[in-house]
Design brief:
mainly alpha, Growth Hormone, Chain: A, globular
């Protein structure tokens, strides 16, 4: 019998795998900033390289999610992260746009496969909302370490050091998966009558679209958070301090989401999140003084983490087989893949203020999508799942 999701070993392995797979949520400012400052790419090209990584994640997740219940999670996670580690080590030795672009795309496919089985397994835990909150707290701890150390490492050792750090993170995740990746329990959906393929309830797709919209705003703003501050003339030390503060703040939202799981209306949280996110994005991109920029940047990622934790619990209840949440990388990274390239194009063409305008437009669409979710969210009846 495999390792239980509820065991300490299983939780640690899932937490490490989640941190590695969600590295973009932590690293985007440093990632894009390094490609611009160290590799001399313009904003559009820098965003495009990262977009190829995220597009690879989407592709792998879309292919793997429908067959999540038929693939060996431990094997996929181990091989996926091992291949990703190799890809980033190769990227550290590449310097031209074409090589970095190709390696980012291939590495994204490996990460996407590993992250899909990670999130699908989390969705099959006894309390998906709480489990996702726990691994998100781990991501917050990882963010503090990463954002506190990596900018200094890159400044001292050059751009390739960033990809060596990424490779080390992926290698650690591969080792954790090999030693302790848990087995998903049987599907918790009772099917009456002839065996037919379960279909996701229609409302689930609105939740997926809403989260994808939020990730567009997250990625296009977060990618240029560091550059926006630098181009406004803020001191490098001050911007690094903001990144460290951001990492510290990110320790809180998932823990708060776990504590407030049964005290806040999930639909209300989901409809509020995009509005607050868009306001913060506009503040970051339009501020000409440091204080508003620093305050908004410090809590910007926290809004996404808090809102997505509630969304994860909602979708787990609406579609309990785990397949929808095995597609979490696709719903997150589809938006994230658009974000860096879109943000880079907007910045290059219209300036940083245009990112705030785009954020407001996308937020309106996300709020509409979340408004289509039921007011009180419980697991959908089996018959609706089969409809």
């Amino acid at each position: 019998m495999g390792i239980s999701i509820e065991s300490r070993r299983g939780r640690v392995a899932l937490a490490v795998a989640h941190c590695a797979g969600m590295i973009d949520l932590v690293a985007l400012p440093v990632w894009v900033g390094t490609l611009i400052a160290q590799y001399r790419f313009d904003p559009q090209r820098a965003g495009g390289v990262v977009t190829l990584f995220l597009a690879g994640v989407v592709l792998a997740s879309v292919v793997l999610a429908p067959v999540f219940n038929r693939v060996p999670g431990r094997v996929v996670a181990t091989l996926g992260y091992a291949l990703a580690a190799a890809g980033f080590v190769l990227a550290a030795g590449a310097g031209d746009f074409a090589s970095l672009a190709a390696l980012h795309g291939l590495t994204g496919i490996a990460v996407g496969a590993a992250l899909s089985v990670t999130h699908g397994t989390i969705a099959r835990s006894a309390r998906p909302h709480r489990m996702f909150a726990l691994v998100s707290v781990a991501l917050g701890v990882f963010a503090v370490v990463f954002l506190g150390a990596t900018p200094q490492i890159v400044a001292a050792a050059g751009g390739p050091a960033l990809f060596l750090v990424f490779g080390g993170v992926m290698a650690l995740a591969a080792l954790a998966a090999l030693l302790a990746f848990p087995s998903a329990p049987p599907v918790r959906v009772a099917v009456a009558g002839p065996a037919v393929a379960l279909r996701m309830p229609r409302r689930v797709w609105f939740g997926i679209a809403g989260i994808a919209g939020m990730t567009v705003v997250q990625a296009m703003t977060f990618s240029f958070l560091e550059r926006a501050g630098a181009d406004q003339g803020f001191a490098r030390e001050s911007i690094n301090a903001v990144l460290i503060a951001l990492g510290l703040v990110n320790l809180l939202p998932a823990a708060l989401a776990a504590l407030l799981e049964r005290r806040l209306n999930a639909r209300g949280v989901l409809m509020t999140g995009p509005v607050l996110q868009a306001l913060l994005a506009a503040t970051i991109m339009l501020s000409t003084s440091f204080a508003p920029y620093a305050a908004a940047a410090s809590v910007f990622a926290a809004v996404m983490i808090f809102t997505h934790t509630f969304a994860f619990g909602v979708l787990a209840r609406l579609e309990p087989s785990g397949r929808a949440l095995a597609a979490t990388p696709a719903m997150l990274m589809a938006g994230s893949a658009v974000g860096p390239l879109l943000g880079g194009t907007l910045v290059k063409t219209f300036g940083y203020g245009s990112v705030g305008v785009a954020a407001a437009c996308v937020a309106a669409v996300a709020v509409y999508c979340f408004s289509r979710l039921p007011v009180t969210i419980a697991a959908e009846p089996t018959r609706e799942a089969l409809a």
